[in-house]
Specification:
There is one protein chain. With 183 residues, the protein is mainly alpha-helical. The chain has a domain of 47 residues. Helices cover 75% and strands 3% of the residues. The protein is built from six helices and two strands; from the N terminus they run ααααββαα. It has a two-stranded antiparallel ribbon with strand order 1-2. A hairpin with a 3-residue loop joins strand 1 and strand 2.
């Protein structure tokens, strides 16, 4: 039995019956499952010899759980008042500032001190790095076309920017906003 519907997902020109396609699909799933199992088994064997790997896995799982739990209030509410939204933005900004201070700035100052720099030199190097980073981010924000859910389009308004699909504008916005966190 050949498939003659051109919109059908099975290729009608090859005459592949549905049962044969189903078998191929299950074989593909089985191969994928075996590959995932082998990868997990190799990882687990390696992790048994390196306790720091298990600690990193545990820490990552705690972070993933915290991220998932952070979405619960948003998912349970239909709409938030401006005050609640501002409070959540403020809390998130405070967490990010604390992460910058304790995970980036203080270790950076210690690294400059370990290389023989004074406290003033460490502060100067980090101040210059922060200003340079802020300047680069401001330049990218002004030059790259991107779109926010609330504010709409931002960045340089050129013919190319106007021709970009909204999807690419959101991709640029996400990349622009996640670049500093990744660095």
């Amino acid at each position: 039995m050949k498939h003659t519907d051109p919109n059908h997902p099975l290729p009608h020109a090859l005459g592949v019956p549905g049962a044969r396609h189903s078998v191929r699909l299950w074989i593909g799933f089985a191969i994928s499952a075996l590959g995932i199992w082998a990868l997990f088994a190799q990882f687990w064997a390696f992790a048994q010899t390196q306790p720091v790997v298990l600690q990193a896995l545990g820490g990552g799982m705690v972070a993933a759980l915290a991220t998932a739990l952070g979405t619960v209030p948003v998912m349970l509410s239909q709409s938030m008042s401006d005050r609640t939204q501002d409070t959540m933005y403020g809390f998130g900004a405070g967490v990010m500032l604390a992460a910058c201070a304790f995970s980036l700035i203080l270790p950076g100052m210690e690294a400059v001190r370990q290389q023989g720099g004074s406290d003033w030199m460490a502060a100067g190097v980090l101040a210059a790095a922060i200003l340079l980073g802020a300047t680069v981010m401001l330049g990218m924000d002004r030059l790259l076309p991107h779109e926010h859910f609330i504010k709409g389009r931002e960045g340089r308004d050129t013919d190319t920017a106007r021709k970009l699909q909204r999807t690419w504008l959101f991709v640029f916005a996400i990349a622009l906003h996640n670049l500093p966190e990744g660095l």
